[in-house]
Amino acid sequence: MRRGSYPERPWIDRVARALPEGAAVLDLGCGSGHPVAADLLARGFGVTGLDVSEAMLDIARAALPAGCWLQGDMRALDLGRRFHAVIAWDSFFHLTGADQRALIPRIAAHLHPGGWFLFTAGPREGEVWGAVSGGPVFHASLSPAGYAAALEAAGLLPRQFVAEDPQTAGRSIWLARKD
């Protein structure tokens, strides 16, 4: 469904420009690897993708063999290594607010000092149900103040928050950096 649509590109560009050559990047909730992981691999970054869906990972493995594709639940994130960036575009908000709060310190532990965390969330606190391809999809969000507090408590400095960014089809975006 995502091929040809890449509204997150300006944000991925921003993070990519800040990374060292060949940097290690974790695509959290990577799905099929398109478009984010595919773009990062094409730029020469070492991409690890984590997703709960083995079927989506099979697509990523076939199309993008240069990536490292791991099956797992992001809530149990424990890869035993660090990354220069963690990107959770259109994935993090499928967790409950409590699960998001618990995951933020795990993400911080997976970042090198100076590493970046880019993720999408809702513009305000709450839970909603949407639909993708006719099926129900859960979304949850903390308040902007709640995210800022959770990020800061984990040693991540919020650098930017844009609510309902029209350039990304209305997504709300957070960019934070590890101290």
From TrEMBL:
Signal peptide: none
Methyltransferase in keyword set: yes
Species of the source: Fuscovulum blasticum DSM 2131
InterPro entries assigned to the protein according to its UniProt record, in alphabetical order: Methyltransf_25 (IPR041698), SAM-dependent_MTases_sf (IPR029063)
Sequence ranges assigned to domain Methyltransferase in this UniProt record: 25-115
One function term, GO molecular function aspect: polyprenyldihydroxybenzoate methyltransferase activity
The protein's name in its UniProt record: SAM-dependent methyltransferase
GO BP term, pick one: methylation
Record key words, sorted: Methyltransferase, Transferase
